[in-house]
Amino acid sequence: MPLYVVATPIGNLQDLTARAREVLASCDGVVAEDTRYTGQLLKHLGIEKKPFHALPAYDEARRAEAILDRLGQGASLALVTDAGTPAVSDPGALLVRRAVEQGVPVVPVPGPSAAIAAVSVSGFTEPRFHFAGFLPRKAGARSAMLDELRALRAQLVFYESPHRLAATLRDLRSTLGDRPAVVARELTKVHEELSRGTLSQLAGRFSGEVRGEVVVVVSGAPEAEQAGEDPADLEREVRERLSRGERPKDIAEALSGSHAKREVYQLALKLKER
Ligand code: SAM
After folding, report:
1. pLDDT score, position 228
2. Which of 264, 263, 213 is nearest to 241 (CA)?
3. Contact 94, 20 (CB under 8 A)
4. In CATH, which of 3.40.1010.10, 3.40.1190.20, 3.40.50.300, 3.20.20.70 is domain 3-112?
5. Domain 115-223 is in which class?
6. 183 lines ligand 1 (CB under 6 A)
7. CB 191 within 8 A of CB 185
8. What is the pLDDT, as a whole number, of residue 94?
């Protein structure tokens, strides 16, 4: 019997699909990131109590065993997380993989996801987007990931907690350049807000206390960043500025609209030493 992977609302309960309701009502049991939270949702939907299995992110591997046993016995289970689509920056991916390995049919029941909702209103016209999820917290891993993303000709989608938003916008700005971006806050909720501007404008706007949940969408790499740019052009520009007496730090700042600050800074230091 299948494992249904069911999306639930990210704020507005009306966004639960009719099919999700039907699957939640008819399955033999519910696998939930947080059973109390999902219990409230089922109550709100008027769905009778069901056997619950907890699948918290910190214990997914261990908890998956009992769930796989139930599936193996023929139970149909619906996997849900607190909000949005399971396995998208949420538990579920490991359980799905194990279910597939065990020959259990896995059935998507699609619906809300904050990333897709944010991309749909970003207004950026790149046909591709890259879902980056939460950036690593450690500085080294964070800048390595941002370096990887810098040349992508695709909208970049990040999840972030409200109290780290300003610092992340500053990091994005210094690694990716001062690109246009959107902060999508409290999507589908009463205080929904779409804030548009360059990364530095947004970092200024969100420098105080921020409440609620946020997604950041950053426009893709500008023309000069894309593959095919002649690196000699950048080198020439940096040399000229050095010869005018500009400091590497200022050159990096001046060119940060189209190039990664760190890359320009290191190039300027190297050229200056020669
Ligand atoms: N699985 C979920 C999904 O499909 O969107 C994401 C879960 S992840 C643990 C939670 C993050 O999603 C939040 O920190 C925030 O970045 C984003 N998020 C969730 N709901 C949101 C909302 N209503 N408005 C803006 N961002 C939201």
Report:
1. 53
2. 264
3. no
4. 3.40.1010.10
5. alpha beta
6. no
7. yes
8. 97
Give yes or no on whether 3-112 and 115-223 have one common fold: no
Q: Which atom of ligand 1 is nearest to the CA of 134?
A: 16
Domain ranges for the chain:
3-112, 115-223, 229-273
Question: CA 61, 91, 171: angle at the middle one, nearest 5?
Answer: 120
Per-residue confidence (pLDDT) for residue 225, from 0 to 100: 54
Atom number, ligand 1, closest to the C-alpha of residue 158: 16
The pLDDT assigned to 226 comes to: 54
Enter the pTM of the model: 0.84
Cβ pair 182, 192 in contact under 8 A: no
Residue ranges of the chain with per-residue pLDDT less than 70: 224-229, 257
Task: Please tell me the distance between residue 111's alpha carbon and the centre of ligand 1 in angstroms.
Answer: 13
**Residue 260 is which amino acid?**
A
Residue nearest atom 8 in ligand 1 by C-alpha distance: 89
Distance, CA of 255 to CA of 182 (rounded, Å)? 22
CA of residue 229 to ligand 1 center, whole Å: 36
Whether residue 198 has its Cβ less than 6 Å from ligand 1: no
Ligand 1 neighbourhood includes 132 CB (under 6 angstroms): no
97-102 long-range contacts, Cβ below 8 Å, gap at least 24?
98/64, 98/68, 99/3, 99/68, 99/71, 102/68, 102/71, 102/72
Q: Is the CB of 256 under 6 A from ligand 1?
A: no
CA of 115 from ligand 1 middle (Å) equals 7
Residue nearest to atom 11 of ligand 1 (CA): 159
pLDDT value at residue 222 = 83
